[in-house]
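In this section we walk through a basic example: taking a raw amino acid sequence and producing a predicted 3D structure, encoded as discrete structure tokens. The instruction is simple. Fold the sequence below.
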Amino acid sequence: MTHALALAAGAAVALAVAARPAHAQDGRVERQTMKFVEQGSSLYVTGNVTSVFDASAYERLENGLPSTVVVRLWIYPERKPRPAGFVLLHRQCVYDLWGETYACAVNGPTGRRTYKVKFRAEALKLLTALDQVPIADVADVAVEERYVLAAIAELNPVSKETLAEVRRWLSDGRGGGLDRGGSFFGSFVSVFVNLKIPEADRVVRVRSQPFYRPRPATPPRAP
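The resulting token sequence is shown next.
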């Protein structure tokens, strides 16, 4: 059974890219209303990190060079910095100048998927949409406690630490969890809480609205 979590509203991926600076470059955090859904044993999130592309980066999608987006997602109790769930996403698209199509690879908790799309807007969506991404085990999210999702998206990261983290995740193949040597809490604090700006072409930080898992309704007693 699927349950939409309280205080969560749908968020559509915007394909129009505004010519504005990425907030993380000056330490600000973008607020976004996201949708959280409990399905089976997992909690899923829907939103986007489209703002990691400005107009110039969007134009460069068709220059024939790879465009890479790395997204790190944490879910944590509203007033506590230690995450209850963590996921890393790695997306890449390259425009084939001869075939006039975009070849895209999407890596995440559900594995690796490849796509070929015709239009630049489609490539942007593959790079930046968060469409039903499993973010945590339901068992790790307490009922009626307020949680927040934090996301950091990097366009073409060059940081050795980020690239090493991506390689570890891609080689592992499991796609999620907090059991990778304890590094994720430190990364969350240094990069999001302390606003340490990673090395990349552009970086955005996104914070969701607070949400919580409602307590399941008690079935009525039989007469």
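Looking at the output, two observations stand out. The mean pLDDT is 82. The helical segments are 55-59, 120-128, 160-172, 183-193. In the next section we compare this with other chains.
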